[in-house]
Amino acid sequence: DVRIGDPVRAILLGVIDTVNQQTISRENLGQGLLSYGRALSFAGLYALACDVFASADRAAGAPANPWLSVEANIGHGSAARKMVDWATSADAYARAAHIANTVGDVPGMLRVDVGVANNHFARGNLPAAESLLDNVIEQAGTAGYKDVLGLALHSRASVAHLRGEYADAVRLGHEALE
């Protein structure tokens, strides 16, 4: 039922092609489901995105592909937050944190912290969000994890904006772009 020309259609067809292969690569299936979940989330279809992210984790995640479990659960936590399902979001972030910690995935652990900080932000707990994001910014900056640093700076700019600290919000947002 996804209309022709919709980018979600191409991603979904890729997942279907993967499933229809004689030998299914669980990692390829998981990557396709991650892409599909992200596309659904971007389209605002958060409940379906949650199901797809959970399916990606079950079908192809840990122990075989722990990085996939971390990514799937971060996506699941984010989509659940956007539905204001705090318990599901917290559970997904906790699973992602546990797996990332178990395999020593420091950037993954820091991305989870950004997600948890975004939950604090969404619930109005700006001090908790600010503290967690400042910690991520420091660690990611020191370790050279530019993608994580950008995410944390972007979220931190949002916190500064909501606090009325507009100069800091602009500075942090500009740093995030780099």
SSE string, helices as H and strands as E: HHHHHHHHH
Q: Would you tell me the structural class of the helices and strands?
A: mainly alpha
**How large is the share of residues in beta strands?**
under 5%
Distance between the termini: 39 Å
The Rg value, from CA coordinates, equals 17 Å
DSSP strand count: 0
Rounded mean pLDDT is 94
> Unreliable segments (pLDDT under 50, ≥5 consecutive)?
none
| Helical fraction | over 70%
Query: What is the makeup of the main sheet?
Result: none
Q: Please, how many helices?
A: 9
Describe the global form: globular
Structure write-up:
The chain is globular. It starts with 6 loop residues before the first helix and ends with a helix. The longest helix has 18 residues, at 86-103. It has helices at 7-19, 26-42, 46-60, 66-82, 86-103, 106-122, 126-143, 146-162, 166-177. Helices cover 81% and strands 0% of the residues. The chain is an all-alpha fold and 178 residues long. Helix 6 runs parallel beside helix 8 (146-162).
